[in-house]
TrEMBL record:
Domain HPr as annotated: residue spans: 1-84
Phylogenetic lineage: Bacteria, Bacillati, Bacillota, Bacilli, Bacillales
Domain of life: Bacteria
Signal peptide residues on this chain, from the entry's feature table: none
InterPro entries in the record: HPr, HPr-like, HPr-like_sf
Pfam families: PTS-HPr
Protein name, as recorded: HPr-like protein Crh
């Protein structure tokens, strides 16, 4: 299992279209992917879960990945949220 704290650089945060793209990217992999924010953990492969966090630009999340491809997943999702 890998964990990483990440600050969201996307200008819109993880709302609407970026949230959908993030979920689609997470679903390409077999690893379990979770996001924690404010002591709430959601499945990052669920659009409803991700939208419920209301992650805005400049906020910090913890990305938790567990599985055979966790290194690649962590790298790809980190790069995605670091776009500005």
């Amino acid at each position: 299992m890998k964990e990483k704290n990440i600050t969201i650089d996307l200008t819109t945060g993880l709302q609407a279209r970026p949230a959908a793209q993030f979920v689609q990217l997470a679903n390409r992999y077999t690893s379990d992917v979770f996001i924690e924010k404010d002591n709430k953990r959601i499945n990052a492969k669920s659009i409803m879960g991700l939208m419920s966090l209301a992650v805005g630009q400049g906020e910090e999340i913890k990305l938790i990945v567990d599985g055979s491809d966790e290194e690649v997943v962590l790298k790809e999702l980190t790069e995605f949220v670091k776009q500005s």
